[in-house]
Amino acid sequence: MSFSLVIFDCDGVLVDSEILSAEVEAEALSALGVEVTAHDVMQRFLGLTQEALEERFEQDFGVRLPPDHAETTRRMLRAAYVARLEPIPGVRDVLQSLPMPYCVASNSPPAKLGLGLSITNLFELVYPNIFSAQLVAQGKPAPDLFLHAAKVLGAEPADTVVVEDSVVGIKAAKAAGMTAIGFVGGLHHMPPSEKTLVAAGADHIAHTMDEVKALILA
């Protein structure tokens, strides 16, 4: 199938940030007396908006997060990004070789998106087509963000393919009527990630960016 638009998630698809985010959240929660590992955070909360993440933390662990929790984790995450963040291997080559328009659509806030893309030297390849969930009424797993991006860029949902690493992202893509590629090439992925994404509705699974490119251009 020939696609007219490719939508990439950012965290875990363009930049290998999911493990860093999970480690930061686990450390911040541990400081509040909550026993949780980075693996637990990834398994239970991967892909959620910051607001949904904090709401789920409070519900699942029975704690009241301090008012400065988001700012504390942002500060910790920035330090982790500067020290350790890397792009997904091969992603620059894929972006530079795609013959059709592409964009980024993420549940992350704009500041986090800009930081991650800048540190990994990908910002200039995707700007200005960067869409945050703050632009729409509901973030993923609702389809709003993907539909908004497609509308802005003049693409029909049926002609759009989404590359996602999370269940909420795959569900959003399918709810939008788009083809969904489940990407499992980030450091945070481990079995049974593939089965989980397929169960969420992924049409294809890719382990590397070369596989992503082949699926897009097939």
UniProtKB/TrEMBL annotation:
GO terms for molecular function: hydrolase activity; metal ion binding. It comes from the Bacteria. Keywords: Hydrolase, Magnesium, Metal-binding. It holds the Pfam family Hydrolase. The keyword Metal-binding applies. The keyword Metal-binding applies. Its cofactor is Mg(2+). NCBIfam families: HAD-SF-IA-v3. Belongs to the HAD-like hydrolase superfamily. CbbY/CbbZ/Gph/YieH family. This is Hydrolase. It comes from Labrys okinawensis.
